[in-house]
Design a protein that fits this description.
It catalyses: a ubiquinone + NADH + 5 H(+)(in) = a ubiquinol + NAD(+) + 4 H(+)(out). Its main location: mitochondrion. The chain has 367 residues and is mainly alpha-helical. It folds into three domains: 245 residues, no CATH class; 51 residues; 63 residues, no CATH class. 74% of the residues lie in helices and 0% in strands. Helix 1 runs antiparallel to helix 5. It is elongated and about 125 Å long.
């Protein structure tokens, strides 16, 4: 879960990659134990995955309960279990950085450790200590895991208890620089030996004491004051908190707002490209263009001789422009004027008029 990932993220932010790798290895053992043991419980209850339908399984599944208890305690970083040796050192090194970011990381990690202890305690209570909430047929078919499933659980349980103690010297032991040349470390990162001696005792104990107190109080509320929890959940504050947590701090609404806009834009672009631009410029558009061009050209065939004469003149002008590459438009104007004069019987231009017409430009003509 997220609280389990926060220590590794904190160490990566503090450039303590050797310590983050140590916690990653430790985390693999007890988290794998929890997943496999949870699978045993689900299998024993006919694939039921809702914890609210569990309860009173401690006598029916004692071996699985022991495995889940070991994994949960190691996840909670209870002293002298595997999770304790990396998680406690991670949180202490965050405080030992003695910076604003380091202190923020420390308190966030302590808060994450508290939440980890609370949901682990809740999981154990609802599954093994609570009153039975499932059907009678499920409890009649409850059975422990076979030997082939129990062997991996035992191996992971042993590693979840002892690996942290025996593996700490190889990863983060005093004077150990095994990963110093393999992993980049920021020049300003805090040495672990400084963390051991510089962090006050109170801040070393807080990540252990606070989750332990929270677990004991939650277990006491579940056992002796269940109505107080019901009243708290039923209150306005409890409902608001539940709605906020159940909806992931309302981030889902923000994600939906963003994704809906993006999806709408993507749909519009897809529709425009696939059904608009591509059809217009593709084969369909080319065929439509040729059909429209042929229809427009067919409208030019009117049967009137003056229209044909106009077409002839336009074709002649185009021919002159394309064939002789007339770059000076005034010469083209002279040709048009001379042709018009001859057709109307107007006398030819005099030499002075001819020179004046050649000397003018289209920009000087007054139409």
């Amino acid at each position: 879960g997220l609280p389990c990932q926060s220590p590794k993220v904190s160490e990566e932010a503090l450039s303590q990659y050797d310590l983050a790798l140590f916690h990653l290895v430790n985390h693999a053992f007890f988290k794998a134990l929890l997943f496999l043991a949870a699978g045993v419980v689900i299998h024993a209850l006919n694939d039921e995955q809702d914890m609210r339908a569990y309860g009173a399984l401690v006598q029916l599944l004692p071996f699985t309960y022991t495995m889940l208890l070991i994994g949960s305690l190691s996840l909670m970083a209870i002293p002298f279990l595997t999770g304790f040796y990396s998680k406690e050192l991670i949180i202490a090194s965050a405080y030992g950085n003695y910076s604003v970011s380091g202190h923020v990381g420390y308190w966030l990690s302590v808060l994450a450790a508290l939440f980890t202890a609370l949901y682990s305690t809740r999981m154990l209570y609802l599954t093994f200590y609570n009153r039975p909430n499932g059907g009678k047929d499920r409890y009649l078919s409850v059975h422990e895991s076979p030997v082939i499933m129990a062997i991996p659980l035992v191996i992971l349980a042993i590693l979840s208890i002892f690996f942290g103690y025996f593996g700490q010297d190889a990863f983060v032991g005093a004077g150990s620089n095994f990963y110093g040349n393999a992993l980049f470390q920021h020049p300003n990162h805090v040495l672990l030996v400084d963390t051991h001696f510089s962090v006050p005792l109170l801040y070393n104990l807080l990540p252990v004491v606070l989750p332990s107190i929270g677990s004991v109080l939650l277990l006491a509320l579940y056992t002796f004051y269940p109505r107080s929890l019901i009243s708290l959940i039923s209150s306005k504050l409890g409902r608001s908190a539940y709605a906020c947590l159940n909806q992931a701090y309302r981030f889902n609404l923000l994600y939906a707002l963003i994704t809906n806009k993006v999806l709408a834009l993507a749909f519009y672009c897809s529709k425009t490209l696939d059904r608009g631009v591509l059809e217009l410029l593709g084969p369909y558009g080319l065929v439509s263009l040729l059909l429209k061009a042929s229809q427009n050209m067919a409208t030019l065939d009117t049967g009137f001789v003056p229209h044909y004469a106009l077409y002839f003149v336009l074709a002649l002008i185009s021919f002159v422009i394309l064939t002789f590459q007339v770059n000076e438009p005034e010469y083209l104007l002279i040709l048009i004027v001379r042709h018009y004069s001859n057709s109307q019987g107007i006398p030819a231009l005099t030499t002075e008029q001819h020179d004046a017409l050649i000397g003018c430009t289209l920009g000087d003509l007054k139409i």
